[in-house]
Amino acid sequence: MATAHHADDHRAGRRSEAVGENYMRGLYGDDDYNATHYGHQQQQRPPPAPMAVAKALATATAAFSMLLLSGLAVTGTVLALIVATPLMVIFSPVLVPAAITVALLTVGIVSSGGFGVAAVAVLAWVYRYLQTTTSSSGQQPHIVKDWAQQHRLEQTRAH
C-alpha cells in the first residue's frame, strides 16, 4: 500500500523521501505517519489502559531480571577474587614466568607468520610486476636487462 502512494507522489511530481526519518516511521508503524504524510487528519488516541499496564509490567519485569543478573555477576566475581587471590599469591613464582613465556611464544609465532605473509606478498608483487612489464612491452624490464648485461659483461671479462 505504501508503494502505491509512493508511486502516486512520484508521478504527481511531489518529492517523497525514500530513506530517512519518515521512511523509518512508516516502516515501524508509527501511527500518525500516514496521517501527517498523506495530509489526513487523525485524532491522537491514548493507548488503552490495560495495554499501558501490560507494557509497564513487562518493562519492570525485564528491568528487575537484568538488575538481578547484574548483582549475581558482581557477587560471583567478588567471591572468585576472594578465593583466587591467595592461590595467585602462592603460585605467582610459577605463574609469572609461565605467563611471560606464553606471551613471548605467542608474539614470536604471530610475528613469524606475519613476516611469512609479507614475504609471500612481496614475491607475488615482484612476479606480477615482471609479468606485466614483460608482456605489455614485449621486452624485458630494465631491471632484468641491466642484470643480463652485467652478467654478460662479467662472463666476457672472465674469458
TrEMBL record:
Q: What organism is this sequence from?
A: Zea mays (Maize)
**What protein name is recorded for this chain?**
Oleosin
For this UniProt entry, what's an example GO CC term? membrane
- Compartments where located: Lipid droplet; Membrane
Q: Which family does it belong to?
A: Belongs to the oleosin family.
User: Mind listing the UniProt keywords for this protein, alphabetically?
Assistant: Acetylation, Lipid droplet, Membrane, Transmembrane, Transmembrane helix
Name the GO terms of the biological process aspect. Answer: lipid storage; post-embryonic development; reproductive structure development
Record membrane topology: Multi-pass membrane protein
Q: What is the lineage of its organism?
A: Eukaryota, Viridiplantae, Streptophyta, Embryophyta, Tracheophyta
Q: Which gene encodes it?
A: LOC100280608
Give TM segment ranges.
67-92, 98-127
